[in-house]
Protein 1
Amino acid sequence: MAEAPTLEDKIMAELSTVIEPELHRDLVTLEMIHSLSVTDSAAEFTIRLTTPACPLKHQMEAEATEAVLRVPGIESVKVNFDAQVTGNPRNMGRMSVPIKNLIAVSSGKGGVGKSTVSVNLAIALAQTGATVGLMDADITGPNIPTMLGIDQMPPASNNKLVPAEIHGLKVISMGFLADPGKPLVWRGPMIHGAIRQFFSDVAWGELDYMVIDLPPGTGDAQLSLAQSTPLTGAVIVTQPQDVAVGDAVRGLAMFETVNVPIIGVIENMSGEFFGEGGGQKMAEARGVPFLGSVPLDPQVRIGGDSGEPIVANQPDSPAAEAFQHIAQQVAARISVINFEADDNVIPLNLIG
């Protein structure tokens, strides 16, 4: 004779009706429910998120609470959260360093604020509690040190370069290593070799996300990195106007050609001066997610020039809040990309 289901069994059965809104599977099947306990009429459990930047955790909390309260005898529910960032299956056996996700930030042309987006996106991800690295792979025009207000790294250790640390980020840039008064005139293979050394010769430690600020355009450096490195995906940065969007489309197409998933499109400097909506129209036309727009704000430029990024220095400003929202969308999209690559269940047309 089968044993009657316990109260815990009934709670898990109800939780199996709660669907994770990005992955489109229930919380129990996804093994996201942990540490379930029942004391008298009170239930408590933890939902383990796939990223601390999950934008929909409050929706899951509300739906899980409602589901558990349907169990007879349960009168109160406490939902806790922790997070374990999912790693990209493309990395398996291909990375010499324990980095779960590599995010390429790219633009079809210079001058659209790609490095500004890279810096503020990386800080916003770190602010959620994730471990984040920032690689300035724009070897011939390394601007990241200026934007972060740092000019050197710690001393090397155990024959490894030690990245600088600021705002919760680990940072590497050729700007730390080169003479600032001399131009860096390098050909494609030399740039590619330097980028590879930024992986192999730097003591990164374990990272949930590495944001890689690529050179502008679609040249040798971008193509070789995309082909030789297991990128989780690419973020495409554009301005709203047509000429910038046209160049961004070519950059997006390059990643598609080498089978790198597109995380989405960001419209930078959106507003009256440059217009708005071009990035969203581009994303819709190409069938990729639109991650959000960042309003044109002089404080973003001022913060970049002074080494005080707006997400760190003015976190409640509209531009900073836009970057924080975009970071949540990037993290959620990465969770879906990794789940899809590992499980091969979710059709691409369901990702939005």
Protein 2
Amino acid sequence: MTATDSAEIRDTIYKYFQLAKTKEIEKIEEFLDPGFTKFGDSPPYDRRDFERALMLEQLQFASLSDYDFKIEDLKTEVMGEAAVATLVLQVTGMIVDDYSFRGTAIDNKSRVTIVLKKDKKGQWKIIHQHLSKLAG
């Protein structure tokens, strides 16, 4: 593992979660490998393929207001062209339902595993993401 790879992976992860703050939902796809899958910590709890995961991620990021996140205990392990990152993600904000003009406050803390691979251009792309909500 090189320090450069580790720094690039950390940067990729921070920039990805920052998209919900900046509302640049059109950029979500740039962070994902075409084979991306996800197990989320909110319904639906099924394994999502690329198309479904992208649609739900865009919907969730667009529906968040006053969003903030904090990443704790980020560890990366690089194995050649693949890497695994583990972290604890704290998310706060409000999910706004534009149809009912209501919002639901969120304050979630989840364990997160992110699997990445280096693409042909040398950029780290997220190939799988697994979130598990922590109690409390």
